[in-house]
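P.,

For your records, the input lines for the assembly:
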Amino acid sequence: METLTLLALSFDALLNLSLLYLAWILLNCEDLLKAIVLFVAFGLLMALAWVRLDAPDVALAEAAIGAGLTGALLLTALAKLRVIETNKGTTQQLKQDSENFQTLHYMTPLALLLVAIGLGYVVFSMPPISAGLSNDVATNMGNSGVSHSVTAVLLNFRGYDTLLEMFVLLVSLLGVWSFGSTTSQHETTPGPVLDTLTRRLVPVLILVAAYLLWVGAHAPGGAFQAGSVLAAAGVLLLLMGWRPGGYLSTLPFRLILVAGPGLFAITAALLYLLKGQLLAFPVEYAGIIIFALETTATLSIAVILAALFLSEPPHSDKEHI
Amino acid sequence: MYFYALIGVGLFSVGLYALINYAHLLRKILALNVMGSGIFLILIALAKRTGETQPDVVPHAMVITGIVVAVSATALALTLMLKLAAETGRAELSEKDRD
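Structure tokens returned:
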């Protein structure tokens, strides 16, 4: 037992120090491509940290979104930026980025050190034992309709957080679309390796997403994790060169985009009219309502995240008629 | 688990430093993401103070929401950066634009 605790402690120390070291290196290295690759590695280490802190749900979300999807978004943006720079002939100017170091006022590191010390003091001045809301969650679990506490909090106890979050996703996609496309992308033919990999992986990813969605009711998993895994399948297809056209850019596509937030908002409005309280699920139907909300949310999250990756608005309907 | 919370403070500070220090917008976006990770780490580490084996799950749910919001904000910020670069040729905010 003694050696096990010692091993766990040294693992924690190693993990923590590598997290801080990676963050420092990735933020201060000259090469932006290297910085992004290090950021993906940082995300994976963060996922390990979540597991160590008994937060497997957060670990799943971090591994799929924080490391995977954000990394893909950053790499695509960097590639597009390089194209823009080459077209504009401004590559040389950006090399001076590291010279901006000297413009820093000497007081800034001092002020930042004070911020860090202040925050550290606040963390240490917290009471060592505080139940938080865990007792409330435990007493109300029976009325939630699911047996996994994180899903109960996300979809039932604090359902309006998730409701608003769905709209944040939708609004950010509308924001991205409103800028129009930055570079035109056409269908491309993938190399044999990517082609085979995608054909094998996409069905597996769809299956994993369905499993995560189903298992979310009683174990780590749920709509966000399932949605992001499904979005990863979409990103793979987009990387392979597939471009949604035709019926995918018309009404059915837009309906899937708004299905998740829409159903959530309608449920909230109906329950408010019937019971006078926003998102107060009746106990006997809570399980079914949560499952329906999670399923549509998964589809919407997946399509919104994949569309954010593509980042160009769908062609107008007229072009395809 | 104060160690993890302390590293969260460290990540936040390192991110804030890079956010102020570098002009390149892609670095600023990376810095904001690192700062976010630091805040998430503080929240989850402090959720373990229940005195039992099961941590408080409300911060867990908040952090999952936060991760999804962070990725959508990152996507929007990257699009803004690309549009700025397409207009000015540089992914930076120049000094004279600030007033």
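Two observations worth noting. Helices of chain B lie at 2-21, 25-46, 57-88. Chain B has three helices and no strands.

Regards
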